[in-house]
Amino acid sequence: MKLCHFNMLICFSSLIKEPVILQEALWLLLFPRGMIFVSSLLLSVDLEDVRDWVKDGACYREGVQENTRIYLQQFKKWGVKATFFVVGEVARRYPQLIGEIIEAGHELACHGDVHLQLDKLSAKEFHIDIQRNLAALKAAGGEKIVGFRAPTFSLTARSAWAHEVLADLGFTYSSSVLPAKNPLYGWPEFGKEAKKVAGSLWELPVSLYEIPGLPVPMAGGVYFRVLPFFLSKWAIGQSIGKKQPVVTYFHPYDIDTKQERFMHPDIGGKNYLNMLMYIGRAKVLNRLDMLHQLFPFQAYGDYVNHLQTKG
């Protein structure tokens, strides 16, 4: 994430909240009641344990199970299915939790065996990593696992070989590309629309705001928590109104209001950036609830099945 993007997030997070009546008036102006939407939000949780990449992480409170079950309760309440991109190590650590996800009818997908970014692996090492990830999910009861998300959206032009590996292993989709410039990982040349990339494998890139100067995800992680919600609703409505799916991603920690304060990985040890990791966690489920009242939710695999049917 660029420094300017973080600065914009800080500014937005400190804005005075717009009056609810004004927000609703703007929303109705943009999207009148009765407007029919023909696409959906692809609902997902990246099931990982952030403590695994934090110094002395095991000393901190375990929150993965509690927060995942909160997601499960909400999804059941809304009557929706989601895709859980699961790290292999998490599946081995919490097989009962994986069983609960399966029992609830949600989709399991791979998120790497130990959450290693693709630029840290060769094609052969990636092949082995995914096989271990698959084995962990199947040992916990998973079947017909056909989806993958690269840790930190680390699939770029330099690691495009991963698409071939996934296709060879029988995967039907990946959601691993951030189609914009980014100091961590990004592939702006890939484009913003889903497309076939290797054999029958589809890549579903992260959905971005179409706002000049703000090429960041519209429905995931810190961006969803910190940016004003009316912007999220507007951007999501625009995409779905254009028959484009909205690729979402959330984590157990995104709703964890009890988590101790520690320095998160991948932010260069900067305190002001670490502050953003804790902002807005109490808002996530309420915001998702409001989105559920406006737009349909769908698991990734179901959407890809629709794409394959269309040809």
**Major sheet: order of its strands?**
5-6-8-7
Instruction: Return the structural class.
Output: alpha/beta
Q: What is the CA-based Rg, rounded?
A: 19 Å
Largest β-sheet summary:
4 strands, mixed
Tell me the overall shape: globular
Instruction: Give the second-level CATH assignment, the architecture.
Output: Alpha-Beta Barrel
Determine the strand fraction and express it as a percent band. Answer: 5-15%
- CATH third-level topology: TIM Barrel
How many domain units?
A: 1
Q: Element order, helices and strands? A: HHEEHEHHEHEHEEEHHEHHEH
Question: What's the average pLDDT?
Answer: 89
- Count the E strands: 10
Secondary-structure map:
Elements: H1 3-13, H2 20-30, E1 41-42, E2 44-47, H3 64-78, E3 83-86, H4 88-93, H5 95-103, E4 107-110, H6 123-139, E5 147-148, H7 161-168, E6 173-174, E7 195-198, E8 201-203, H8 221-226, H9 229-241, E9 246-247, H10 271-276, H11 284-294, E10 297-298, H12 300-310
Parallel strand pairs: 1-9, 1-10, 2-3, 3-4, 5-6, 6-8
Antiparallel strand pairs: 7-8
Helix pairs in contact: 6-7
